Amino acid sequence: MQEKSLVTKVGKGVNFLDAAKHRATYAELAQKHLHLPIAKRTYIKAHGHVAGPQSDTPNAGNQKNAAGVLTVGYGGGVTTIGPEYGVGIALERLVDAPILLVKCSWGNTALAGAWRAPSLDGVETPTEKAVREASNKKQAEAAKQAGREFTPRPAPTPTGKLQYAWGMTMPEIDKVLADPGKYYPDYDPKVGYEVAGLVWFQGYSDKDNPAYGELLAQMIKDFRKKVKIPKLPVVCGTLGMIGFKNAAFSEGANKGMLQASQMPDLVGTVDVVNTAPFYPMELDLLKQVMGTYAKGTPEYEKAMLIQKRAISNKGFHYDGSAKCFLLIGDAMGRSLANLMAGGEPMMSAE
């Protein structure tokens, strides 16, 4: 296929009707030139901010759909990857069974809000309550000194609705489990299926949230209840945006993942992968090098070419490093395979 006929992206709000065809073509190119494997018995159903046609919901740009054999191209575009690629390739290598991944992904979403567990609708965790009361007390004192009135922030009240991400994820899971053969061509209904695990990679919007551990623990419990597996293996990937070992667990989300994994009813079934060692320090260095050259010079253009070859998204988290996402996914996939086999969480070794 000629380069000009290979569509890799469409405009904002435009339905990507031929995404599957172009994703497959790009995957073949990536396999041939970059030696990136195309899975043999691992398939994926992706939903959310992915490259594919929209759902049946009008103007639902946040509910794109993509499905097929696992390859590159199930990130935010048909040329990009997220951790799902490394997760699936690792599982295919380590698990003697056909695999179907269900990826649900939206940017700029918080565990405290969009992913809030249904059982916490209108309910504060102990830490959230303490933070709210301390803030009200501090603001009340400041208002008193300033001679003005102050209305304290009240405790939350139930909404009776699933939050943004939960409200899109749960129906998607129900849809896939109701008809696995629609997304896995060789599915045998006589054999059936097993919900084998959950991989959780989120937290930037909650990085300073002291209640993250409590929220994550309840989210895991609610998800396990949803799929009716009380001890479902769960693997969490930390925010590895700081490439220094002593800072790997210094903020809210990462500390919260560790806290949740050690809670009595979760310990031994929840693993935490430290992704900091995979942070692409070389791309930070490349940015510094680029800053020493004027735009348009041969040196600058050469550095730009290197950068374009290295990134897998818009270059925000992890500098958009494809290598980083591949390594993160591989580590989480290996961790999940270990838990599925009855192994102890691997984080204890680190």
Main features:
mainly alpha; Rossmann fold; 9 helices; 38% helix; globular
Structural write-up:
The chain folds into two domains: 3-118 and 163-280 and 321-348, SGNH hydrolase (Rossmann fold, 3-Layer(aba) Sandwich), CATH 3.40.50.1110; 124-157, no CATH class. Helix 2 crosses helix 9 (322-340), helix 5 crosses helix 6 (252-261) and helix 7 packs antiparallel against helix 8. By secondary structure, it is mainly α. 38% of the residues lie in helices and 9% in strands. It is built from nine helices and six strands, in the order αββαβααβαβαβααα.
> What is the structural class?
mainly alpha
Computed over alpha carbons, the radius of gyration is 22 Å
CATH superfamily of the largest domain: SGNH hydrolase
The backbone outline, from C-alpha atoms, is globular
What's the CATH architecture of the largest domain? Answer: 3-Layer(aba) Sandwich
* Helical content (DSSP H or I, runs of 4+): 25-40%
Low-confidence stretches at least 5 residues in length (pLDDT < 50)? none
Under CATH, the topology of the largest domain is which? Rossmann fold
CATH class of the largest domain: Alpha Beta
**Average pLDDT rating:** 91
**Strand order in the sheet with the most strands:** 2-1-3
